[in-house]
Design goal:
The structure holds 2 protein chains of 2 kinds.
Chain A (H helix, E strand, L loop, with lengths): L1 H10 L21 H31 L12 H32 L6 E8 L2 E5 L5 E2 L2 E3 L5 E5 L6 E5 L4 E5 L5 E5 L5 E7 L10 E6 L4 H10 L7 H11 L26 E2 L5 E2 L3 H9 L22 H13 L2
Parallel strand pairs in A: 1-5, 4-10
Antiparallel strand pairs in A: 1-2, 2-3, 5-8, 6-7, 6-9, 9-10, 11-12
Helix pairs in contact in A: 2-3, 5-7, 6-7
Chain B lengths: L1 H6 L1 H9 L1 H4 L16 H32 L7 H20 L2 H15 L7 H24 L12 H4 L4 H29 L10 H32 L12 H36 L8 H27 L3 H13 L2 H15 L7 H24 L1 H7 L4 H29 L5 H27 L14 H44 L1
Helix pairs in contact in B: 4-5, 4-6, 4-7, 4-19, 5-7, 5-17, 6-9, 6-10, 6-17, 7-9, 9-10, 10-11, 10-12, 11-12, 11-14, 11-15, 11-17, 12-13, 12-14, 13-15, 15-16, 15-17, 15-18, 17-18, 17-19, 18-19
The chains are: A alpha+beta, B mainly alpha.
């Protein structure tokens, strides 16, 4: 069964592997898949041929009847050896040239690539997008080059996404760049092959969005345009980020305290302490929402640290302050 | 090492000039095997030591291979597994794969093949044995006290920060590597000094390859000794080179470690070549033995490539930061495969013209050829940058190394089977011998080929969990490990049983004689 699967892998042309993701073989999800698979298959065929040739020759030599006279040492052997060494050398040179070209392509990031900052921390992967949004899964656009700026951590790790044919070791505390261009939408496994390490199995998904879906996702995480005046920006954020679901503007009591008259009243916390309203208090409550919970409310607000641009936070503060 | 060599020169010259003087009277060794200077007895002592390490390492290997199919309920934590991985790798690398052939078979056969009666420096030989015994003792202490969990390659920065006492394993590795350097110097000196003896014979490929292997081991040894000393100094707080806060210290460590390990792989490959040539030539018959010129030139080429490749490959494989070095490393690593093609062709040619019946020692030699070729062919994937950059941190790389290491074990057994009758007077059961060598060969292929496929699928190496949905491959690996271990145990039993038979036959004939 497994031998058959191996043969199927060796026999199947690289191009057909893309549809075979479901049966356990790697999908062709990036532009590197085809050349790397081609190199792998070429090596597999050559290796298999030479291996079968050698084993066959050894078995034949073992089974052949014994001979008394030998003509091995008459000088012909040397010529054969020379020819063999030359043949092997040329084949290997072919491998060298081909492999180096395939590799060179993976090393040079195209101009204009979308840059995503990648970091591995104790709690897992984080992916920072150009707008400052930090995701826990890697979201990728289809058919566009993406530069991955891999940030060094306090332990060495490998950024490993087999479906995209990327395995990039990142040294201790050193930054390194890699790039990919996804070619097949879907959700793929992403691992940190850190070894041996407590984070050996930090895993996440690499999500390649279908045509156009990435832009929608990106607009969604981007929030309002950052060049708006602060109060207007804050109002748009209030609407887009889901604040409105819990914090009313008209004094109605929802899951969270109302923003009406926010700056003109004292806030009593769950532990009885009293907090004066201030920009710092608002900022803390947005970024680290569990730090101070107002009496009478459940601690249900999501933590927004790392998920909002600084300008957006400033906008929200200005907006809440403007509600008096 | 230099100090040892300088301390001995006067004695050495005399020993070689008058080899008969070296052997003390026979009655004095009876109780003093531990301090014997006789090269054959030292070979036997090494064989016992290496046999013990082999059995221990294999049971650890079997445990590792069974773990995935035993499932999560087996109770082995990730840390326990890391410790087993580490001790398995350390024991089999430093006490089996590297020393087995030079110390046992080299000691036994080299003087005879060079036409002298003793090794050049018997005391260095004994010292090398004591170092290896100390290394085994330290590994046993490490294993019983608190096994190292930083992998056989002492991966920094983990080896710096881990709570496990790395020092025992590091000292064990240092002792082992110094022992290789001593025995390597001794083998080289024996070959070199034999050239001025009247009884000198032209060197066979066996001596060329063994000398090449010894040279590579000797020159590589200081790298590892220095590296592990720095690691120990770092852990002891007297150095700051490998501090986890130093950017890139892990790469520097891994680079230098792979300089050593690449050279060591070259040494192992050459040692395999030595024994396989010896066994194949013995079966081909003297008049059919291949002219050694092309293969010997290949030995020299392989030595040069092992050195040049060691530097470049070491740096290129891990970091990928320097384009030039990555490309040069790839070219050298690929070029290093050429000599293996030459040797394989030489052996097939010699076998086709053999005039001796195929014995089980030839079976093990063929298993070693097949595994050496498998290792070389999987290097093709790793050395070509196109696939190598993707495969380097997956199980593909350890699978390639396991082909080589088990090729060395097969070559070692080929040599032992070849010499067994002369050594112990025992007559081996050929059918058992063939069965054991087929079990080992089949088992190793069953363990390693799935690792190659898993490597392509992106399975990171030394990871406790398999890539999603690939558990099926681990069943094959467990079957293969079981076959390999049972094949090796069968071979061991075959050897021991025949030696005991020979001894009891000898005893009964003595009794009959006395009666």
């Amino acid at each position: 069964m497994n031998a058959l699967a191996l043969l199927a892998l060796l026999a199947g042309p690289a191009g057909s592997a893309g549809s075979a993701g479901s049966d356990g073989w790697l999908p062709n999800a990036s532009t590197f898949a085809a050349p790397i698979d081609r190199t792998f298959l070429m090596s597999s065929w050559v290796a298999l041929f030479l291996f079968v040739l050698l084993v066959g020759a050894l078995v034949l030599a073992l089974l052949a009847p014994r001979r008394d006279a030998g003509a091995w040492a008459d000088g012909k052997g040397g010529k054969w050896m020379g020819a063999l060494a030359l043949g092997a050398g040329l084949t290997l040179a072919g491998f060298f040239v081909h492999g180096t070209f395939v590799w060179a392509d993976t090393q040079v990031t195209p101009r204009g690539a979308l840059t995503i900052q990648v970091a591995l921390e104790d709690k897992g992967w984080s992916f920072t997008y150009p707008n400052g949004y930090v995701a826990t899964d890697l979201h990728l656009p289809l058919d566009r080059p993406v530069k991955l700026a891999l940030r060094g951590a306090s332990e060495p790790y490998t950024f490993s996404a087999p479906a995209l044919r990327v395995q990039v070791p990142v040294a201790l505390g050193a930054n390194r760049d890699a790039w990919i261009q996804p070619t097949l939408a879907g959700e793929y496994e992403l691992r940190s092959a850190a070894n041996p390490s407590r984070r050996a199995h930090a895993s996440a998904s690499a999500i390649v969005h279908a045509e156009g879906a990435y832009d929608t996702w990106y607009q969604n995480i981007s929030g309002p345009p950052l060049d708006l005046p602060p109060i207007e920006l804050g109002q748009r954020s209030y609407e887009m980020r889901g604040c409105a679901q819990c914090h009313s503007l008209d004094g109605a009591k929802n899951a969270g305290p109302t923003f009406a008259g926010f700056m003109t009243r004292q806030h009593v916390l769950a532990d009885g302490t009293v907090v004066e309203p201030s920009a710092d208090y608002i900022k803390e409550s947005i970024l680290d929402s569990q730090a101070k919970v107002v009496q009478g409310f459940e601690p249900v607000m999501p933590v927004f640290r790392g998920r909002l641009h600084d300008l957006e936070v400033a906008g929200l503060i200005a907006f809440i302050q403007s509600r008096k | 090492m230099e100090a040892v060599r300088n301390a001995e020169p006067a004695r050495t010259t005399r020993d070689v000039a008058r080899p008969a003087d070296v052997r003390p009277p026979a009655e004095s060794h009876g109780e003093l095997w531990l301090f014997t200077l006789d090269h054959k007895r030292l070979a036997a002592m090494h064989a016992i030591l290496i046999g013990l390490a082999l059995v221990a390492g294999l049971f650890l290997a079997a445990g590792l291979a069974m773990q995935p199919i035993a499932g999560r309920g087996s109770g082995a934590s990730a840390e326990t597994l890391r410790r087993i991985y580490s001790m398995h790798g350390l024991a089999l690398t430093f006490l089996v794969a590297l020393p087995a052939i030079p110390t046992v078979l080299g000691n036994w056969l080299l003087p005879e093949r060079c036409g002298v009666r003793e090794m050049a420096w018997p005391r260095v030989n004994l010292f090398s044995f004591h170092l290896l015994a100390a290394s085994l003792a330290l590994f046993v202490i490490a294993f019983l006290a608190a096994p190292s969990d930083a992998g056989w390659s002492f991966d920094a920065p983990f080896s710096v920060t881990t709570n496990a006492p790395i020092a025992w394993s590091a000292f064990a590795a240092i002792c082992a590597v110094l022992s290789f350097a001593c025995s390597g110097a001794n083998l080289l000196a024996t070959i070199a000094f034999s050239r001025r003896e009247a009884s000198a014979k032209p060197l066979p490929l066996f001596a060329w390859a063994l000398g090449g292997s010894a040279l590579v081991q000797m020159l590589a040894a200081p790298v590892l000794v220095a590296l592990l000393s720095i690691l120990l100094a770092q852990r002891g707080g007297t150095s700051d080179v490998l501090a986890p806060t130093t950017v890139g210290s892990d790469v520097a460590f891994a680079t230098w470690f792979s300089v050593w390990s690449y050279a060591a792989s070259g040494a192992v490959a050459l040692a395999i070549v030595a024994i396989v040539s010896e066994v194949v030539d013995a079966h081909a018959g003297e008049e059919n033995a291949p002219a050694a010129r092309a293969p010997s030139a290949a030995v020299i080429g392989a030595c040069v490539l092992a050195f040049a490749g060691a530097g470049a490959q070491g740096i290129g494989s891990r970091t990928g930061t320097s384009v030039g070095i990555s490309v040069a490393g790839s070219a050298l690593a690929l070029l290093a495969l050429t000599p293996i093609a030459v040797w394989c062709a030489t052996w097939v040619g010699a076998l086709a013209r053999r005039n001796q019946a195929a014995s089980s020692s030839l079976g093990f030699a063929i298993a070693a050829i097949v595994l050496l070729a498998a290792s070389a062919l999987s290097s093709l994937f790793l050395a070509s940058l196109g696939s190598g950059a993707y495969l380097a941190s997956t199980t593909f790389a350890p699978a390639q190394m396991h082909f080589l290491a088990l090729g060395a074990v097969c070559a070692f057994l080929a040599g032992i089977h070849h010499l067994w009758a002369r050594w112990t007077g025992g007559v081996l059961r050929e059918s058992w011998g063939w069965m054991s060598c087929l079990l080992v060969l089949g088992g190793v292929l069953l363990v390693c080929v799935p690792q190659l496929v898993l490597g392509y699928l992106g399975q990171p190496h030394r990871s406790e969990t398999l890539v999603t949905g690939e558990a099926r491959w681990s069943v094959l690996a467990a079957l293969g490990a079981a076959a390999t271990v049972s094949g090796l145990l069968l071979a061991g039993w075959n050897l021991l049983a025949s030696a005991m038979d020979a001894r009891s036959t000898e005893a009964s004939s003595c009794q009959r004689g006395a009666a």
